Amino acid sequence: MSFQLSTTEALRYATGQSVLGPFAVAVSGNDVVAVVFGKDRQALTQDLRRRFPGEQREDAPALAPVVDSVAALIASPARRADLKLAPSGSAFQKRVWRELQRIPAGRTASYGDIARRIGAPRSARAVAQACAANPIAVAIPCHRVVRGDGTPGGYRWGPRRKALLLQAEAGL
DNA sequence: TATTCCTGTCCTG
DNA sequence: CAGGACAGGAATA
User: Fold this and answer.
1) Where are the alpha helices (DSSP H) in chain A?
2) Is A142 known to be catalytic?
3) What is the pLDDT of residues A107-130, one digit of tens each?
4) What is the pTM of this model?
């Protein structure tokens, strides 16, 4: 849940535009801790404030390269992003998120598949819940998880974004 | 096809 | 602390 770093430095964030709409990226030190979508700046900062109750400040100049990297990743989700990710969550959630990062671009896995791979074969629904709680959109590819029957399943950021992401990495 | 139960988390009262 | 809601799925009737 909450995490502690050796520095007393506040969380830094910046916003940007992508092919899937406005987004925000938050970093702690050099680690990306969140990538979220939202309809405008106000919704984005409100989302961040809800996720990270502690002190935080906008730092657009310093984070410009990170914003560019994230925007490029959203446009081409199949590419390998050189971002250091540090999502905070429960042990179960981290197991799920780690497994998601092993799904190759252009491929999908079902919620049940992920549940089996982390050794919790009955926990497909809990896996879906963990996907929904994924704090780092696109970079942790929760969009590559679909239902066992092949239908898309849900997506925290809307079915349209999920479909577009999958379509973007389908042709390789 | 419709019920029922299962699993881990989060939100509410 | 109890109960319900979830981005699912397997088992059962």
Assistant:
1) 41-51, 60-75, 91-100, 111-117, 124-132, 159-170
2) yes
3) 999 999 999 999 999 999 999 999
4) 0.91
